[in-house]
Amino acid sequence: MYMCPCWCSKVIKRIFYGVILGFGLTIGGVVLLSMRAGLGAGYIFDSKKQLMKVLLLRRFGPKSIATSTLIGTYLKLTTKALFTQQDAIHCEHILGYNVHFYDYVDFRYLFAEVFGNEEYYFTAKTKNPFIIDCGANIGMATLYFKMLYPDAQILAFEPSRLCFDVLQKNITTNNLSTVTAINKALSNYKGKATLLDASCGKGNLCATMLFDKAEQRASYLMPIECDLLSTYITKPVDLLKLDIEGGERAVFEDLDRNGKFPLIKEMVLEYHHHIPAEREIDALGTFLATLERYNFGYQIMGCATQMGYQYELLGGQALIIHAYQKINK
Amino acid sequence: MWACRGRIVKSVGAFAIFVVMILSVTALVLSMRSPGGIGYLAEAAHFVLRIFVVKPASSAIPRGKKLMTMTRLVVAPLIEKDVSATRPQRVIDFQVYFLNHFSSRILFSEIFVDECYYFTSSNPKPFIIDGGGNIGMASLYFKALYPDAQILIFEPGRHCFDVLRRNMEANNITQVQLINKALSNKNGETALFGGDGAMGASLFAQGGDGGAQGLSCTVACAKLSDYVTRPVDLLKLDVEGSEHMVLDDLVASGKLRLIRQMVLEYHHHGGGKREDLLGNFLATLERHNFGYQIKLCNRGNDLCDAQNLIIHAYNKALLA
Q1: Would you say A269 and A242 are in contact if contact means Cβ atoms under 8 Å apart?
Q2: Which of A311, A312, A319, A325 to mutate to test the interface with B (most CBs of B within 10 A)?
Q3: CB contact under 8 A, A300 and B294
Q4: Domains of chain B, earliest start first
């Protein structure tokens, strides 16, 4: 047997202890930093869990960004969140865009959802598809569509004033000339409405028009303008992206009443089942039946907060439904 | 002194490497003998690791037991090539005969690891109907949840039914009634495709998950409504595409209101026709005052691929 000089084992031992010590110090340091940044001690573990989940759910087939870019950007955002103040508009250069946003943690979540899971991936027939982005937030999905189809024409709706300002900024800084942003909510009527935004001055990922009268607080309520989606659909739509936190049924009602479904080729919808204000209402069947009536086929592409993970029959669930006109396929 | 310690460290390290090498070579050799080839190692690792990744919020089976059983099921094909239902495997606290190694892993993973049929009942002796009982894994799981449960099991496949009966006898399971019939919307006979296979036999030629299934045999079929004469605490339904027929029968006979909860595997884009009927199905549940939760099992690679969903429906009036 090859005899190793005795200093070798000493070096191995030192390296071993060094690695353990380094690892412990790093974890401890990150935990302290995340507590100082107000993110909670479990931040690093949550981040690991979220990244693992995104990587596990990564779609097969075509991807818009490489997995290494995804992991790199995710780690960059995770680290930067530790060293930034919470109440300011930040700007970050990712994937060739300068993107403005309010909060690193929310932004990281959006990034992972849109670019990691690629929920909004679709194949268009033309080079300049007409896309409607409802519930655009700060415009991540819009940027994703622009990345897939640089010549796409996009109409983005965002009711919250706070998010809309950042959305506008993102459109102008990145010279997205064919994108039009409209500061309105979508529903089944035209006029004034109230939005529940519990973020206190930052943009929110789940501002909704459906809320319990009991849980509302005056500071959370935001007066907004509401409009009918059907008035904007005058030509064929290649993709309708709809993530409007519970308002999807009202929008469907409007599209159905005004007969606009035949103009829509494809849809990616986030259906909010058992949303807090509507725990007792089960309407997914009626919702999908509307799609069936207009000859749409559909696939359930994702299911956030799955039944098996939180056993509660009234628990909220978000399903991602990708619907397509069958004649076109 | 340092030299002495160095030697110990080194010999321990060398021994560890030696053991790992021996183990991996054994696993490699054994896996090459197994039907799956070397790729079997990856599959085995996947099934074992799932136990740590999937964390059901409410669980009736301790994780240690899951791990022990899964290891046993994964190692079994390396030792004996053909299981041929002669020797039972120990599953949690049961002795279970399987039809083949592959189905043993899948069934155990779905039913005991994911616990997709978990439910709560205020009745300590719940009445459960197990539609599509296969070899009885789901019924054994229900017995693990509620030892006093009364279970009515439907299984059309002859082969599966024999093993089902043997499993119930081997574990001294009482208060179960076994019926060798398919569930459909008529009484009589029907063709069963993939008839004697271990899993996935369907009343549709294309099978519940869209795969072509050639072999067919004739089996007896019955209406579920004839058996629903008193309140049912749980209807478990995994009938590979016939769930529409069963639901329609329950609606037509007015027996749906006797059912408190349902856990069913819905086969979307299945049955060969690739139809979109899920909305229709859920709308029927809504009309009869059922609420539901959904679990996505797979999403397929294409927009019209077959996909399975688990729907846990509950009668709002009876559960309130």
Answers
A1: yes
A2: A311
A3: yes
A4: 28-115 (no CATH), 122-319 (3.40.50.150)
Q: Where are the domains of chain A?
A: 19-117, 118-329
Partner B contacted by A316 (CB < 8 A): no
Q: Which of A12, A296, A313 to mutate to test the interface with B (most CBs of B within 10 A)?
A: A313
Per residue in B132-188, pLDDT (tens digit) is 999 999 999 999 999 999 999 999 988 889 999 999 999 999 999 999 999 998 899
A15 touches chain B (CB under 8 A): no
Burial B39-65 (b: 16+ CB within 10 A, else e): ebbebbeebbeebeeeebeebebeeee
What CATH number does domain A118-329 carry, 3.40.50.1820, 3.40.50.360, 3.40.50.1980, 3.40.50.150?
3.40.50.150
Length of chain B: 320
Chain A hits for B263, Cβ within 8 Å: none
ipTM of the complex: 0.80
DSSP string, A56-74: HTPPSS--SS-HHHHHHHH
Instruction: Give B172-195 pLDDT, tens digit per residue.
Output: 999 999 999 999 988 999 888 875
